């Protein structure tokens, strides 16, 4: 999938070892690792209800053409290397139990608990595209035993001629270092998430493979890993939202229990269509919105529409990030001449763009009188005040018509004041109970509006000047919830409505 920015050559460099002799050797052996980011976690087991870490799940990952299949290595009391995630198998502690005792209980599909030898041999059969991602589990007995497991695993990999296919990962940093010491040419990724990519690179390792939440808490580590030219991997990623975020951020590898779902997300993601993420907020840190990304419009003048709210600045009663979403909250409370408070957030810093795709995942408020909006205004107002310099409304909704969202453009020639605005509605029965993706794609020729990737409205550049097309300048994004007003209050405001919330899951901006 070359268009997805995961060429095979890059993947081979990142996860297959970066030395020229290694690449030449793989070429001679006919190995071309799959050019997708999918690493099947404990094999591809879930859809077909196969046992995790079984040979059957490994074979299915290979059949799916995953770029990698991960498995976990432990060592028994009699020093047999076996494949199992947990330190116990059938309630028996693996490190304190002989292999002969463990295999008395088969896996759910009838397989024996596989040894590393058997697993590697099976993993090399009819496989020229899927890496064997070997996780060395830390010993529960001692650090020294963990080092011994690493030594024996690397030795077996080389004995069987599997080094060309194998990548190593571990939560134990010392085990990672040991593997690299034993085989300087092999590829090793660290799992624990407590070291920056810069530190991992300085330690001689080849990649960071952290839980996706680590990257959400440390988004700067994504750029750092790319700058350090080390592999960028995340686990265990099982929902479309998580997958889409990682794909948008250009992760080389994504470890998942749902390889089939990830395959579908890759086809649908904006990155697959040639878009590159240039700005985003995933709202993963609790508290006020990130003040490096967001500013506020403040006041209660009616905002040209006889609105009833006073927009506050950096007030967590009206703008709050919690549990992974931004909440824009309207409260019924007196502020100056206004009967409500709310928030109107605007992107700041580098938060304006000329052309691109803007995506906002949001769940809308309910109640007669609410008027939420996701929209864009010009940064420099080159052609004069509103509406001459333009406005793009990605999504507007009014509470008295809850099952329809609208997209619009406003210009000097086309605007609602003179009744010529260009607008269209989209029926969406659960806009107030579910998150939906509202998006705009904007280029020099036209503006397209989408709901859940369904194109429903386009506005074309007529070429007749700024009066009809002022959209050749930078615009910034606004998120707000008005109360009442000429449109939102057309059918009145519910007097019992004391609080209303618009939730935003993420904002992403792409350009080509």
Would you mind describing this structure in some detail?
There is one protein chain. By secondary structure, the chain is an alpha/beta fold. It has two domains: 2-274, TIM Barrel; 294-511, Jelly Rolls. Helices cover 21% and strands 32% of the residues. A hairpin with a 2-residue loop joins strand 26 (446-451) and strand 27. Helix 6 runs parallel beside helix 7 (173-182) and helix 11 (240-248) crosses helix 12 (259-268). The longest helix is centred in the first third of the chain and has 17 residues, at 143-159. The two termini are 17 Å apart. The model is unreliable at 1-24 (pLDDT under 50).
Strands, total number: 29
Structural class label = alpha/beta
Oligomeric state of shown chains:
single chain
- Strand proportion, as a percent range, falls in 25-35%
Largest sheet: 10 strands, mixed
CATH superfamily of the largest domain: Phosphatidylinositol (PI) phosphodiesterase
Question: Counting H and I runs of at least 4 residues, what is the number of helices?
Answer: 13
| CATH architecture field of the largest domain | Alpha-Beta Barrel
Chain-wise SSE layout:
Layout: H1 8-15, H2 20-28, E1 38-40, H3 55-63, E2 68-75, E3 81-83, E4 88-89, E5 92-93, H4 99-102, H5 116-124, E6 131-136, H6 143-159, E7 166-170, H7 173-182, E8 188-190, H8 197-202, E9 207-211, H9 212-217, H10 220-228, E10 231-235, H11 240-248, E11 253-256, H12 259-268, E12 276-281, E13 294-296, E14 309-311, E15 319-322, E16 325-335, E17 338-342, E18 344-347, E19 352-353, E20 356-363, E21 370-378, E22 391-396, E23 404-410, E24 422-427, E25 436-442, E26 446-451, E27 454-460, E28 475-483, H13 485-488, E29 499-511
Parallel strand pairs: 1-2, 1-11, 2-6, 6-7, 7-8, 8-9, 9-10, 10-11, 14-17
Antiparallel strand pairs: 2-3, 4-5, 12-29, 13-18, 15-16, 16-17, 16-29, 18-28, 19-28, 20-25, 20-29, 21-22, 21-28, 22-23, 23-24, 25-26, 26-27
Helix pairs in contact: 6-7, 11-12
């Amino acid at each position: 999938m070359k268009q997805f920015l995961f060429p095979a050559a890059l993947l081979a460099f990142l996860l297959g070892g970066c030395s020229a002799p290694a690449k030449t050797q793989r070429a001679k052996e006919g190995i071309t690792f799959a050019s997708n980011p999918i690493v099947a976690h404990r094999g591809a087991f879930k859809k077909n209800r196969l046992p995790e870490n079984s040979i059957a799940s490994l074979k299915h990952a290979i059949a799916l053409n995953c770029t990698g299949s991960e498995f976990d290595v432990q060592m028994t009391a009699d020093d047999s290397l076996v494949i199992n995630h947990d330190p116990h198998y059938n309630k028996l502690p693996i490190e304190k139990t002989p292999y002969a005792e463990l295999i008395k209980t088969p896996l759910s599909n009838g397989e024996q608990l596989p040894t590393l030898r058997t697993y590697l041999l099976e993993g090399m059969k009819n496989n020229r595209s899927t890496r064997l991602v070997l996780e060395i589990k830390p010993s529960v007995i001692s650090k020294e035993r963990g080092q011994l497991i690493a030594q024996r695993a690397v030795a077996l990999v080389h004995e069987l001629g599997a080094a060309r296919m194998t990548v190593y990962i571990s939560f134990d940093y010392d085990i990672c270092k040991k593997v690299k010491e034993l085989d300087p040419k092999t590829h090793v990724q660290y799992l624990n998430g407590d070291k920056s990519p810069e530190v991992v690179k300085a330690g001689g390792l080849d990649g960071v493979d952290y839980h996706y939440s680590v990257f959400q808490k440390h988004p700067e580590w994504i750029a750092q890993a790319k700058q350090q030219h080390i592999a960028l991997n995340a686990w265990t990623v099982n929902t479309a939202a998580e997958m889409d975020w990682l794909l948008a951020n250009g992760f080389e590898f994504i470890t998942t229990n749902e390889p089939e779902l990830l395959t579908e997300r890759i086809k649908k993601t904006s990155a697959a269509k040639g878009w590159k993420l240039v700005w985003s907020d995933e709202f993963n840190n609790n508290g006020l919105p990130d003040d490096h990304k967001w500013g506020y419009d403040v006041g209660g003048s009616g905002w040209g529409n006889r609105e009833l709210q006073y927009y506050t600045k950096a007030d967590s009663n009206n703008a709050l990030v919690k549990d992974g979403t931004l909440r824009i909250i309207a409260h019924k409370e007196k502020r100056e001449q206004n009967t409500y408070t709310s928030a109107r957030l605007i992107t700041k810093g580098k938060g304006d763009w000329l052309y691109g795709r803007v995506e906002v995942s949001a769940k809308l408020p309910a109640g007669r009188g609410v008027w939420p909006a996701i929209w864009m205004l010009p940064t420099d107002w080159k052609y004069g005040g509103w509406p001459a310099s333009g406005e793009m409304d990605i999504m507007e909704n009014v509470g008295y018509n809850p099952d329809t969202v609208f997209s619009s453009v406003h210009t000097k020639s086309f605007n609602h004041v003179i009744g010529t605005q260009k607008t269209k509605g989209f029926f969406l029965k659960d806009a107030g109970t579910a998150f939906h993706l509202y998006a705009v794609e904007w280029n020099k020729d036209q503006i397209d509006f989408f709901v859940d990737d369904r194109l429903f409205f386009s506005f074309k550049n007529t070429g007749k000047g700024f009066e009809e097309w002022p959209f050749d300048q930078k615009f910034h994004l606004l998120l707000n919830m008005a109360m009442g007003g000429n449109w939102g209050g057309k059918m009145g405001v519910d007097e019992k409505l004391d609080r209303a919330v618009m939730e935003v899951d993420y904002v992403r901006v792409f350009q080509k």
